[in-house]
Amino acid sequence: MLIIIKNPAPQAFLNSCKTNRLMVYIGFSYTNQLGTKVKYLLIVLTILLLSSFLTSCDKKEETLYGWEISSGLEWRTIGDKSKNPKYKGEVRREYIIFGDYIIEGQGSVTYPDGRQYVGEFKDGKENGYGIFTSSDGKKYIGEFKDGSSHGQGKLTTPDGRKYTGENK
Predict the structure, then answer these.
(1) Residues forming beta bridges with residue 57, ordered by sequence position
(2) Do 93 and 152 share a structural domain?
(3) 55-80 tens-digit pLDDT
(4) For residues 163 and 24, what is the distance between their CA atoms, to the nearest angstrom?
(5) Of residues 99, 90, 94, the one with CA closest to residue 63
(6) Which long-range contacts (CB under 8 A, 24 or more apart) does 124-131 make?
(7) Pairwise CA distance, residues 75 & 100, whole Å
(8) What is the mean pLDDT of the chain?
(9) Is the pLDDT of residue 33 over 70?
C-alpha cells in the first residue's frame, strides 16, 4: 500500500482560494498474471475538514448570474445577462453540500431591465453604503440594509429634483 500526502493542493483544485488543504492519495500495486507490477490508484481523498470544507473560502472576485428560485435569488457562474441579473465583485464560497456562492464585500449587480447597484454586500444582500440607479434614471446614494435603502441617503430624479434624508 502506498500513501502520499501533499500540502497544499494544486491551485486549480483550490478554486483560487488561498487556504491550506491536504490531499491524500491512497493506492496499491500488485503483480498481474504476466508478472508485471501494476499500480492502481484506489482513492483520491481530499481532506478539507481542517481548512474550509465545512466553513468558507477566502473572499475572491467572481462574476455570477442570479437565478430565481422559491426562496429568492441563487447566484451561479453561468447565465445570460439578457435574462439574469449579473453580479461582479467579491464573494465567499460556502462548502456546505455542493458549494454555494455568497455575495459579500464590494461589488455591483446589473439587472436585465437596466437597474444597477454598486456598493457593499453582506450575506447576499445590499448592506452598507451603495449607489442604486433605477431603469428610469432615479439615483439613490446612501445606506442600505438587508437589500433596501435604509438610513441616510440622497435621491436624485431624472428631472434634477433632490431629496436628502433618512430612509426606514
Answers:
(1) none
(2) yes
(3) 445 567 778 888 887 777 777 788 88
(4) 61
(5) 90
(6) 124/73, 124/75
(7) 8
(8) 73
(9) no
Contact yes or no for 156/146 (Cβ under 8 A): no
pLDDT at 27: 54
- Residue 53 lies inside a defined structural domain of this protein: no
At residue 34, the pLDDT reads: 62
Residue 52 within any structural domain of the chain: no
What DSSP character marks residue 65?
A: E
Element (H, E) at 13: helix 11-14
Phi-psi region of 119 (alpha: psi -120 to 50; beta: other; left: phi over 0): left
Query: Within 13 Å, how many C-alpha atoms sit on residue 139's CB side?
Result: 10
| Same-domain pairing of 43 and 64 | no
> How far apart, in whole angstroms, are the C-alpha atoms of residue 137 and residue 116?
10
SS3 assignment, position 46: strand
